[in-house]
Amino acid sequence: MRKVVVVGGGISGLAAAYQLLTNGYDVSVIEASPAIGGKISTVEIAGVPIDGGPDAFLVREPEMKELCSSLGVADELVAPVSRSAKIWVDGSMQALPKSQFLGIPLDLDELSSLNLISPEGIAIAQNDLTAIDNARDGDETVGSLIRRRLGHEVMEKLVGPLLGGINAGDPDKISLKSGAPYLASAASLDHSLIRSIQKFIRASNRNPETPVFLTHPEGLGTVVDALGKELEGNVILNERIQSVHAKDRQWILEGQKGSYEADSVILATPSYISGSIIETTNGKIANLLSNIKYASMAFALFAFPSKEIRPFDGSGFLVAKSEGLLMTACSWSSSKWKHLGDKEATFVRVSAGRADDDRAFNIDNEELTSTLLKELSQIVDVQATPMDSQVIRWPKSFPQYEIGHSNKVNRIQKLLRDKAPGIFVAGAAFNGLGLSACIRDGKVNAQRAESYLGTVN
What we know:
Layout: E1 3-7, H1 11-22, E2 26-30, E3 42-45, E4 48-51, E5 57-58, H2 63-70, E6 85-89, E7 92-95, E8 100-101, E9 104-105, H3 108-113, H4 119-126, H5 142-150, H6 152-167, H7 176-179, H8 181-186, H9 193-204, E10 213-214, H10 221-230, E11 235-236, E12 241-247, E13 250-255, E14 259-262, E15 264-267, H11 271-278, H12 283-290, E16 294-305, E17 316-319, E18 327-331, H13 333-336, E19 345-352, H14 365-380, E20 388-399, H15 405-419, E21 423-425, H16 428-431, H17 435-455
Parallel strand pairs: 1-2, 1-15, 2-11, 6-17, 15-21
Antiparallel strand pairs: 3-4, 5-10, 6-7, 8-9, 12-13, 13-14, 16-19, 16-20, 17-18, 18-19
Helix pairs in contact: 1-10, 1-17, 2-17, 5-6, 11-12, 12-15
């Protein structure tokens, strides 16, 4: 039986290992931390399970729901009860347009009525409907697309905060093709961005009653627990792989506790860690992997006494970068999810940190918590003392898909085939940040490992 070692127990590595195990391969998952799951992290706050990483997944991408089905937990999934979100900009709370796509307004009359964009900004956005085609050759940034079609104000007050909240990135540096492929597809049908997206939505024929997001009421850690049961006996925890080298037509992984033989290896760790592991095998691959940039983010999870806090009308709010606050977004979990809305505690998740803003990582947990509580009091008049709180930090955890990212990924893949056959890399750093994208990448690389093993005598 061929042996595959998967390094990294996040959702990408777990999905790869699960597929390989299901297909009859001898698999080991080696994880440096005390638990599998990666950024999927469900913790208890005031006795209630709350996600300290992603708290939902997009339904339009099928891989996460399919995984839940295969693990027997799909029937337990729930949708948000509140879809409406707001934005804190220019010192006030504003509603996001109901007719919008990733923050891009699709009804400029509605946008005019919201008092979010100035009359001058509305006029510039309206030019999109009549202006000549000024598409750029090749790839461009998300910010470039929005600014040239809809203007700077729509970018700064709508699209930037929303996309920045998704990947902690700077849309003026993020590749449209790699970092927002769904938007790139939606923008390709007409030189008017608004008309193009409208055509894209009509062509998708999506049922508006279908949930956009789903989660598990006990937290997404439930999915990880189910995967852990399937992989029981095949996971090694608290072991950090430091290098990999070839020996007698096998790969030898050197860890802090021992050595591990493998016929094929899937590195499902952050790209800079994968780079350090493969450096002794090929420095050029290591350099490309290490040069993928990352942003850091922290979450502060709060439980407030419900009787002492005013309910929030919506699922949460974004914070425009121009406000200069430490906070980047706030998810009002008790309004967002029905299973959290009937508790004695009101649960609020506050995020801090984005590309080029590491302030949250230059202060300790106490100062981070007190600063975010102060900002909550200023924005939504939260004066209550939390019953419970917890800070979860994700340093260098959000890869940034800058211009040229897809070419870099293609070079990495080619060098691996030529210089390190049998080694594969998977995870959020390459082909998508969302949970389904990570699962898909894990499964694709499991298939690559299977194909490779099928060609080796």
